[in-house]
């Protein structure tokens, strides 16, 4: 897909912005705090209806305004679509070709993006919650039904946890009430687990290949799902459902004691191994960064496999951190097929010979 234009209103430090001349490679150059990240963040927000930097929409609205609008026309295989997202304290409103969408899940996925930013290092280095968020965002982007199950799961989880908290020390009649929540928790939970496992299996294939290329064959990257019950490889829904229900009944006493749900997709994790060693523990800074990059590049291929089109690639401040070999590798792999937006503080920090056809935007 190809973003033809972008317009912003009251978005972060942009009161009004209208751009109509994007190319395949777009360099966004400017000093610190001028609005480079804000510009590509807006594209990310248009794709996923939320920012990669914050969960609070209020932060995206210009100081002193009550709403923000991000709009773009995107050229896709089957024609051009106009996308518009309005953020305000009343919530989000999304339009496709001028038609308001009743459900945001219908809108998400109209534009597909892969963003690689410095904080993505945390996917490898950070807490399990960051890795779960990575999985949820990426799967949700190509499978709206995943977001549905995730929302339902979170709702049930909240109610189940409330019950567990209130029931501390309560009698055995608690059991029947818990069982009602157990069924709903497991129903949505196994869908989430299954889709995550499928996603990781497919991502593994591409990530291993790409990582090998970036490291000149020196490193073998392996991804694995770390479930809170059952085997990592199990993908059969009926089996998962049974295992989840058994686990919930085994954990019952402990859960009542601790007042929370202790197993399920909200406790699962994702692990990365480089040549057999866990990257989070043993990886160098460079290895961790390269792992995060391989993941993101693998996602590009995965989205292509999934929807038959390449997403756009947003590279925030990361190109200049790669050595020239890796920069070249990155640009050449995707130059002709993936529309790319790259931010940097100066053009000299990037291997400019590879970017002779790039369109340059100076942000001030
Ligand atoms: P750097 O090179 O440091 O990464 P940048 O060009 O990427 O800089 P941005 O992150 O895009 O900078 O931010 C630019 C400016 O936007 C900052 O000065 C910030 O204070 C401002 N800003 C952030 N949120 C809002 C908002 N809601 N309203 C107005 N301005 C905002
Ligand atoms: Mg920035």
From TrEMBL:
PANTHER family found in the cross-reference section: DNA REPLICATION AND REPAIR PROTEIN RECF
Main location: cytoplasm
GO cellular component: cytoplasm
One Pfam family it belongs to: SMC_N
Purpose of the protein: The RecF protein is involved in DNA metabolism; it is required for DNA replication and normal SOS inducibility. RecF binds preferentially to single-stranded, linear DNA. It also seems to bind ATP.
GO MF terms held by the record: ATP binding; single-stranded DNA binding
Keyword DNA repair belongs to the record: yes
Protein's name according to its UniProt entry: DNA replication and repair protein RecF
Keywords linked to the UniProt accession: ATP-binding, Cytoplasm, DNA damage, DNA repair, DNA replication, DNA-binding, Nucleotide-binding, SOS response
Organism in which the protein naturally occurs: Paenibacillus anaericanus
SUPFAM superfamilies the record matches: P-loop containing nucleoside triphosphate hydrolases (SSF52540)
Name of the gene: recF
GO biological process: DNA replication; DNA synthesis involved in DNA repair; double-strand break repair; SOS response
NCBIfam families noted in UniProt: recf (TIGR00611)
Domain RecF/RecN/SMC N-terminal, first and last residues per copy: 2-351
InterPro entries assigned: DNA-binding_RecF, DNA-binding_RecF_CS, P-loop_NTPase, RecF/RecN/SMC_N, RecF_2
Location relative to the cell: Cytoplasm
Keyword Nucleotide-binding tagged: yes
Family that this chain belongs to: Belongs to the RecF family.
Binding site for ATP: 30-37
Taxonomic superkingdom: Bacteria
């Amino acid at each position: 897909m190809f973003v033809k234009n972008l317009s912003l209103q009251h978005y972060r430090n942009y009161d009004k912005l209208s751009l109509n001349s994007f190319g395949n490679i777009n360099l966004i150059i400017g000093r610190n705090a001028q609005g480079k990240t804000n510009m590509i963040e807006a594209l990310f927000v248009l794709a996923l209806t939320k920012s990669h930097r914050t969960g609070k929409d209020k932060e995206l609205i210009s100081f002193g305004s009550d709403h923000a609008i991000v709009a773009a026309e995107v050229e896709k295989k089957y024609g051009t679509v106009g996308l518009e997202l309005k953020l305000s304290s009343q919530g989000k409103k999304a339009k496709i070709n001028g038609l308001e969408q009743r459900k945001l899940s219908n809108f998400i996925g109209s534009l597909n993006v892969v963003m690689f930013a410095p904080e993505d290092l945390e996917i490898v280095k950070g807490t399990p919650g960051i890795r779960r968020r990575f999985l949820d965002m990426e799967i949700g982007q190509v499978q709206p039904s995943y977001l549905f199950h995730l929302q339902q799961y979170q709702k049930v989880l909240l109610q189940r946890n409330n019950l567990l908290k209130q029931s501390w020390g309560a009698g055995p009649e608690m059991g029947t009430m818990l069982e009602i929540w157990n069924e709903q928790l497991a129903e949505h939970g196994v869908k989430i687990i299954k889709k995550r496992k499928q996603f990781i299996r497919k991502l593994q294939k591409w990530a291993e290949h790409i990582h090998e290329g970036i490291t000149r064959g020196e490193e073998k990257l392996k991804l694995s799902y770390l479930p809170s019950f059952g085997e990592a490889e199990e993908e059969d829904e009926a089996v998962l459902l049974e295992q989840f229900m058994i686990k919930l009944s085994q954990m019952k006493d402990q859960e009542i004691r601790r007042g929370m749900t202790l197993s399920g997709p909200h406790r699962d994790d994702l692990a990365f191994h480089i040549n057999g060693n866990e990257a989070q523990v043993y990886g160098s800074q460079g290895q961790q960064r390269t792992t995060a990059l391989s993941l993101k590049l693998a996602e590009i291929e995965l989205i292509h496999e999934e929807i038959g089109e390449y997403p756009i690639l947003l590279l925030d401040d990361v190109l200049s951190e790669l050595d020239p070999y890796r920069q070249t590798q990155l640009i050449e792999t995707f130059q002709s097929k993936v529309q790319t937006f790259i931010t940097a503080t100066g053009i000299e920090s990037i291997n400019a010979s590879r970017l002779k056809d790039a369109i340059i935007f100076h942000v001030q």
